[in-house]
Amino acid sequence: MNPTTRKTTLFIATNALATWPAAVLAHEGHGLSGSHWHATDGWGFLAVGALLVLAVWLSRGDR
Q1: Among 27, 45, 48, 55, which has the highest number of CB atoms less than 10 A from its own CB?
Q2: Element (H, E) at 59
Q3: Contact status, residue 36 vs residue 29, Cβ threshold 8 Å
Q4: Residue 16 carries which DSSP code?
Q5: CA distance 45 to 55
Q6: Integer Cα distance of 19 and 15 in angstroms
Q7: CA atoms of 38 and 35, how far apart (whole Å)
Q8: Whole-number Cα distances in Å, 58 to 46, 47, 50, 62, 63
Q9: For the whole model, what pTM was predicted?
């Protein structure tokens, strides 16, 4: 690996680790089980469910 590629790879890896979602400290309550939840939390779960149903329906094919 040449020095420029190594430096670029190290830069990208360092920034990826620095912005890791687990490192972000948000207030409690995100998700439906917390003390409060945001409408966007519920919409996210609904969107994932809809995508799952769509994937199953499309994978059935013509049987």
Answers
A1: 45
A2: helix 39-60
A3: yes
A4: H
A5: 15
A6: 6
A7: 10
A8: 18, 16, 12, 10, 12
A9: 0.41
